[in-house]
Amino acid sequence: MNDFSDINHARRDLLIAGALSATAAAVPPLAAAQQAMPPNPDPITARYTIQINGKIEHLSLDTRTTLLDALREHLHLTGTKKGCDHGQCGACTVIVDGRRINSCLTLAVMHEGAKVTTIEGLGNKDKLHPMQAAFIKHDGYQCGYCTPGQICSAVSVLDEIKQGIPSHVSADLNAKPLLSADELRERMSGNICRCGAYSNIIDAITEVAGRTA
Asked: Which positions make up the signal peptide (predicted)?
C-alpha cells in the first residue's frame, strides 16, 4: 500500500516538474519579450479635403480613421451617432454624393473631394428639414439615439424612389417603385430603432413623400 502511494506521489511530482519546465521554456522572461517586440510604427497620415454640409474641410488624419470618427472626433459633428460600429444598426448613416452610407464602414481618406451631408447639414432648430419636422410631428423617436441616422436614411429613401431605383420588394424592376409601406419598411430595414418607433417613422416618411410627390 505504501509502495503504491510513494509511486503515485513520485509520478505526480515528476509531471508537475515537467509542466513547469516546459512552461518556462515556452514563455521567455518578460523583459526579454518586451525587448523582442518591435516598436509601434508612427501612423501614416494623409492630407485631403472633403465638403461637409457645404463647407470645405481640410483634414490631415491617420489613414485608418473612419469617416464616422473624422466627423465626430475631429470635426465635432456629433449628431452622427456611433452605435454598433459594425455597420449593422444604421445609427451612423450619412449622405455621401447623394447616396446614404454607414460612415463607420468607410475610411475618411476614401472620400477626397466628396460631398457629405450629416444631420447637421439637413436642418437646424431655426429651420428644420421637412423630414425632421415630420419625425417630431409623428413622434418618430423615443430615446432619439438612432434618429439622425433614421432621418438621413429616410431622406435618401425618397430620393431612391424618385430616381426609380428598385428594392427587394419592388414588384416590377423596370417600373418606378410604388411609394408603399412595404417599400419604405424594406428600404429602412438597415436602420434599427431599439425603442420600436417604426410605425411612427413610416408615418413621418409617408407624409413628407406626399408633400413632394
From this structure: none
Report DSSP state, residue 121.
H
Convert the pLDDT of each residue in 29-43 to its tens digit: 666 666 677 777 888
H runs (alpha helix) in 66-196: 67-69, 119-122, 130-137, 147-162, 181-187
**Domain spanning 124-213: which superfamily?**
[2Fe-2S]-binding domain (1.10.150.120)
Single out the residue of 135, 95, 100 nearest to residue 117, CA to CA.
95
CATH class as words, domain 44-122 = alpha beta
Give pLDDT tens digits for 169-188: 998 888 889 899 999 999 99
Edge-first strand listing for the sheet containing 45-52: 55-62, 45-52, 115-117, 93-96, 99-102
Q: Are 204 and 154 in contact (CB under 8 A)?
A: yes
Q: Distance between CA atoms of 5 and 13, rounded to whole angstroms?
A: 12
Strands annotated E in the chain: 45-52, 55-62, 93-96, 99-102, 115-117
SS3 at position 60: strand
The model carries a pTM of: 0.80
Grid coordinates representing 164 are 426609380
**Cβ-Cβ contacts under 8 Å for 106 (sequence gap 6 or more):** 66, 67, 96
